[in-house]
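Appendix B. One record, verbatim.
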Amino acid sequence: MAQQEQLAKQRLIYSILKFLDKEIQAESANAERRESIEVAVQCIETAFEVSLANPPNDLNRNEPIDLLSVVSNKTSMNMPLTDDMRQQADKFKNQGNEFVKQEKYKEALEAYNSAIQIDPNNSIYYCNRAAAHNKLNNNEQALNDCFRSIEIDPNYSKAYGRLGVIYLSLDKVHEALDAYKKAHGLEPTNDNYKQSIKLCEDRLSGANNAGAAGATGGFNLPPMFSSLLGGAAGGPDMMSIFNNPALMNMASQFVQNPQVQGLMANLVTNLGGQEGGQVGLETLLQTGQRMASELSATNPDLIETLRRNIGNRPPPNGDNNSSPNSDQNKPSSS
């Protein structure tokens, strides 16, 4: 948690600097006051080693904490909620969930913001908003929403699972593994967390490297990827693919790509369900399309080789069909 606290501290200092910078711009008519604020900015930058011009990589300079909003909302955080207020907050949360299903992540973000404005102490709202931020690549905001969700409810496993997804997408595998282990400790029957832990452990141990796997000459892929290569009648000749060292090297690089690992971890976590609905076909298709796009961009040679391999295969029921039970694979007309 030390790293998380350091990140939060840096974000706070950066937000203070942004606030003071706005004050400098607003004080154009008061040279003395402007100069005093500029000196304060320089002192803070020197003391905390955080610069407006060159913030740490983990910080999103475009969206610091709105300190005025935090102060103005402080009283509402301790205000008791009525039943009507809770219902209204849940209504906004449900709207956000629907927007996520429709892949309207900006609209989802606005809906979750409205829910949090009414009930700023609901861990579910922050965790859901973290998912929307993650989809928009607002990694810093997503992390901080996870931290806030955990702060409110330290036993909320989904917040740790979401944290793991974000860390893995940032190629912070050690942090992702720690988050997934905490999620699994809170929800030991969740197989998705087990698979995510295995994925992280494979990454850290180098189990994804290309190489021989027994007498079959197979390829040592993580469980989540190996299930994608199941053969079918008329499908690509997987054995010839596995026996091609150059092709296996490209495939190994692909499955070790942090973006691909993040996509798979996100899919695995989401398959466990999230607040507001189960993952549907759209999410599965979206993940597949994103993986295909990533593969096309990073390994065009692999795509071309696979296409040639598939194109050279005989059709399942053609002249070269050697399967004695091929008719059983046809749909019945009765």
